[in-house]
Structures are given as C-alpha cells and as structure tokens.
Amino acid sequence: MVRHIQGMTHAANTTSADARHRWYTRPVLFVEDVNRAARFYVDRLGFEKGWHEGDGTGTVCQVNHGECALILCEDATRRDRGRLYIELSAEGHAALRRSLGERGVTYTETWWGTDTLQVDDPDGNELVFPWAERRTTPSPDLHVAT
Fold it and tell me: Is residue 19 part of a domain?
C-alpha cells in the first residue's frame, strides 16, 4: 500500500530497507477547538491545511509548514500541552521573526538549553525555535522556560 501525503510518498508493508527504516513523525497537539487552532496555525503562523477529517467537519486535521507536519486533535478529555522544538537555518529564523512581526504574533525570547524564540498557540502548546547561534548560558534578559 502506498499513500501520498503533501508531496511525500509513504509505503506500508514493504520490504525495502529504505522504507522500513524511514520514520515520518507528526506530533499530535490536543486542542479545545480544532477549527480555531487550524486558523491560528494557517493565518498566524503561515501553515497550510493538509487535510481535515470528515471533509472539514471532523475533530482532527493536519497543518504543514515545509517539512513540519502537525496533527491537531480536538479532544474534550485531553487538556495537556505539548512543546515542539523546531530548528531553522539562520535565514529561516530571521524570516520567522519577520513573519511573526508582520502578522502581529506575540512571542517570547526564552532559554531552553539555548536561546530560543517561543510561540504559544491558543491552547498553550509551545513552539520553540532555537537561535542558530548557540550559547551555553542564557542571556540575562531571557525568560527561562521550564
């Protein structure tokens, strides 16, 4: 069986060594309202909606930004938060900061083992982007993430 997802081909039940050892990860973020969360990721962070269960009426969807794919899941029983560590090139990090500024997205500069830029989604999930230039101690003006 072969599935095509957002420009990628995924093989299941195949004997190819390459297919057996390739992992394709998509973290699942639990959200209160999948439509509100999808709008945030698409409108505020520049993601594209890959798919939405039930032809757009379901409680699970996927949003993509380049090779970053996230599954958003509306689940009344889950209120836990996630933290994603997303590395970008220096140019990508600069472009992210510009885009966030242009879209009016609030972010904080934090310390999480290195200087990072952190964006929180409406449900408290954290997207953490390390700076390309790494330090081993936090800048004195940074918030230390826990």
Answer: no
Q: Provide the whole-model pTM.
A: 0.78
Per-residue CA distances from 49 to 46, 56, 63, 87 (Å): 10, 10, 4, 21
CB neighbour list of residue 101: distance below 8 Å, 6 or more residues apart: none
Calculate ∠ Cα 121-69-146, nearest 5°: 45
Residue 34 in contact with residue 73, Cβ under 8 Å?
yes
The model's pLDDT over 124-135, given as tens digits with 9 standing for 90+, comes to 999 999 997 766
Q: What is the CATH number of the domain that holds 121?
A: 3.10.180.10
Angle value at C-alpha 104, between 37 and 81, nearest 5 degrees: 35
